Amino acid sequence: LGYRGELVGVHDSFEATDLRTLTGYASYQEFAITPAKGLDLLLTYEFADSDVDFRRGRVERLGAGFEWVLLPNFELTATVRHSFGAADFIIGARDDVTVFAHLFL
Known about the structure:
Blueprint: E1 2-12, E2 22-36, E3 39-49, E4 58-71, E5 74-85, E6 95-103
Antiparallel strand pairs: 1-2, 2-3, 3-4, 4-5, 5-6
């Protein structure tokens, strides 16, 4: 079993006087199980709020996927995700698939 988590705070100030400061945060949580050597099955949860002062703008994602070490120093990762949040704030599709090939030197 494995767990990986990350929490990032965001604080942006702008040079223009008509723009205000933004304060927000993002979080990534990943739970993994290893059913066989070299294969991890993943469940993920992501959260982002670009400005905690606004009522809208909050986005959450649930995902599932795998990490598979095919050869020494080569890993394939695939994740399917679904986004939740205000329709006018999510840009693009609510569902997506990511695939990464990692080569470790």
